[in-house]
Amino acid sequence: MATATKDYRNHIGGAWVAGSAGSYGIVNPATEQVIAEAPEASVADADAAAAAAKAALPGWKRTPPEERANLLQKLADAVRAREDELLPLIMAETGATLKVGSALQVPQALNRLETYARMATMDISIPVQPSVTPTTPLAAGGLIG
Fold first, then answer.
1. What's the CA gap between 75 and 81, in Å, rounded?
2. 31-54 pLDDT, tens digit each
3. pLDDT in tens, 107-121
4. How many domains does the chain have?
């Protein structure tokens, strides 16, 4: 039985946009069915995302660390509140079992968000240890595959 797939988009500069290079199917490894379409970003899309992130950085830098910490904690709280919705998605996308998804995938995401929230208000001096993040954002990142 075929199921409808959801079409996802990239979030660039405050807008949801299709990938300029098309899309690709996300396959559930357990069923080998395409469960969603993901946008395939082009170099131009990556450049646009980097430019949007660069334009947003001054405002984020001016955001007080306490407010950044609160925003990150709110995101963690939202993930926790929707854990039951996220687990089936994680299982479908990665092939993880319910046990792995609920014991590893979601808790790790929550742990990271809450760690970053705590670290946002820490006074960190230079030199910074490799596992420590400074409280001032440095740049945006992207993945080119």
1. 10
2. 888 888 889 999 999 999 999 999
3. 999 999 999 999 999
4. 2
Q: Are 106 and 125 part of one and the same domain?
A: yes
Same domain, 31 and 91: no
Peptide bond into 127 cis (omega under 30): yes
**What gap in Å lies between CA 139 and CA 93, rounded to an integer?**
29
Q: What domain range is 68 assigned to?
A: 64-135
Distance CA 68, CA 17 (A): 26
Residues 89, 131, single domain; the answer is yes
Taking the whole predicted model, whether its pTM rises above 0.70 is answered as no
**Residues 5, 39 within the same domain:** yes
68 & 32 share domain = no
The per-residue pLDDT for 52 is 96
Amino acid identity at 46: A
